[in-house]
Structures are given as C-alpha cells and as structure tokens.
Amino acid sequence: MNAVIEVDHLTKRYRKATAVDDLSFEVEAGTVTGFLGPNGAGKTTTMRCILGLARPTSGEARVSGKRLCNLVDPAHQVGAVLESSGFHPGRSGRAHLEILTMENHLPRSRVEEALSLVGLEHDANKNVKGYSLGMRQRLSLAGALLGDPQVLILDEPANGLDPAGIRWMRQVLRSYAAQGRAVLISSHLLSEMAQLADDVVIIANGRLMVRSSLKELTASTTKAVYVRSPQIDDLRSALENQGFTVEGADRRGLKVKGASTEEVASVAAQAGALVTELQPEEANLEDIFLDLTKGKGL
Ligand SMILES: Nc1ncnc2c1ncn2[C@@H]1O[C@H](COP(=O)(O)OP(=O)(O)OP(=O)(O)O)[C@@H](O)[C@H]1O
C-alpha cells in the first residue's frame, strides 16, 4: 500500500449545504481511481480541498503525506484539470502552456513534450477560440502534465471528447498509472470508468458509499451464473437440491442466482453433468452505482 492521496475525515460545509461529510479514502500509486457520485455529491469540492483551493471545515487532505500548501514543489507533485474554461481565447494553445511553465518555474521544453503527449502539436499555434471542446480538454490535460507530476486529479476530463478521444484519454491515463503514478478521476461516464479504473470511490451526499477495487466490486455483486449442459434437467435438480434458485434461460441453459462459477461447476461435477458453457453475469458498474445512490440526489 502506497497511498499518495489521503482524504482524512474531510468535511466541507457551506452556509446552506454540507458538500463533503466526514469523507475518508486513499488513492494508491500506480492506480487509476474512479471518483463517482451523482450531481452535487461533493466530488468537485473534495478535489478542490485536495488541491488546496477550498479550505476544509474539518479533517484534511494530503498529497504525498503533506497538505498541498506545504508541498515544496507542487507542480511536480500534482497536476489537475478542474474545468476547461480557464483559457484566454485570443492566445494559442502553445502560448497558454508557455505562460503556465513560467508561472510554475518549469522548463520551457516541457511545452513541446506536453503538446505531443496530448496530440495537439499540429494545432498548437491556433488560437484557443478556434478549439473544439475536445481540443480544450486536451489542452487542459497538457497543462496538468506540464510539471510531469506524480499525481493527476481530473474532474470530468472526458466531457466533450468523442469516442476516439475517450479511448485516447484512457490510454494516456493507463500508461501514466503504469509508471507508478496515481490518477484520481471523476466522471459521470460510468461505462467509461468500468474500462479505465482499477479502484472506485463512490460518494453520495458528501458521504462515502463504497471504496473498493473495481474487480472486487463487480465480483461481489455477481448477479447470476449462466450454465449450459446437455444434461440440463439433472443439473437443474442437483442445483435445486443444493438450495440454489434456478431459472431456465433457454433449452440447454440455466441461470443460477447468487452462485459462483466454482459452486455451479462443483455441483455439475457431482451430478455427472457435462458443462459446455459457464459464465458469470456480473452487475455492471452502472447498475451498482444506481443501486447505491438510489434516492440520494440522482
Ligand atoms: N462555493 C459553494 N458555495 C455553496 N455551496 C456549494 C459551493 N460549492 C459547492 N456547493 C454545494 O455543495 C454540494 C456539492 O457540490 P459539488 O460541486 O462538490 O458536487 P459534484 O459531485 O462535483 O457535482 P457535479 O457532478 O454536479 O459537478 C452541492 O450541493 C453544491 O451546491
């Protein structure tokens, strides 16, 4: 365990709203962590607290063991994309990044590296006002990558990207994590998160609902196992005798509720039934998310 981001009993209250309510979770080096929750759940506020842009009411958030304001070289430690709107429209993408390198005392050479990392090198001299939403998102990401940081914090970075852009971003973030760095990414695109995240943190009303690896979460919520066998009637009785709830799926297939593939295979072996297909039907992330956050602001 190598926690690079630690959110520690974080609470943030505004006059009328408790945006974040005693929230704790960690993000490990070498992973992409999906940060999920319905609108108004408190994702942006949490990210702003981690980045030192909002002051917690109580608790704290640390990056590499320190609050961001205490980090010696924050641009090398953390890169963030909070929204894609902070661009001067009359400036080129390259000029925008050059100004960021000056502000953050970074080498000018990083501009070309960041532009090529996000695939904007051919549009770098165009004014940002001519950029599509997707190009602005790429430019935001380039800005976050300028300091070659150990931690990336991205608030809905896939907004406005087309499917090819989303695939591209997935590759960038996966390779980034593969270098041992940490990525915390919020999104409403749950299906996208299912292909990107190692871990998920799900919040609603500012509170933690789930902190889990994506694999464990989907495995623990396996809905059913589909099994096919030429001896379907023998297999059905054997499964029912063991107390499983079984539904006929088709002529040769059964759906076994609440069972693991190992359990179904073992009952089939004992019953002498040949198994020609065995598949877990996992709940997808979207189902899990909707179940968990039902009535909590969606
Ligand atoms: N500066 C602020 N002043 C007052 N209330 C705020 C402020 N910022 C956020 N809130 C409130 O805190 C709650 C959480 O908002 P936040 O933007 O963090 O949620 P979110 O999960 O990022 O939502 P979304 O997915 O819609 O961006 C909301 O009820 C919001 O209205």
TrEMBL record:
UniProt domain ABC transporter: residue ranges: 5-230
Family: Belongs to the ABC transporter superfamily.
Keyword Glycosyltransferase appears in the UniProt entry: no
Protein name, per record: ABC transporter ATP-binding protein
UniProt keyword annotations, A-Z: ATP-binding, Nucleotide-binding, Transport
UniProt entry tagged with the keyword Transport: yes
Alphabetical list of InterPro entries matching this protein: AAA+_ATPase, ABC_transporter-like_ATP-bd, ABC_transporter-like_CS, P-loop_NTPase
GO molecular function: ATP binding
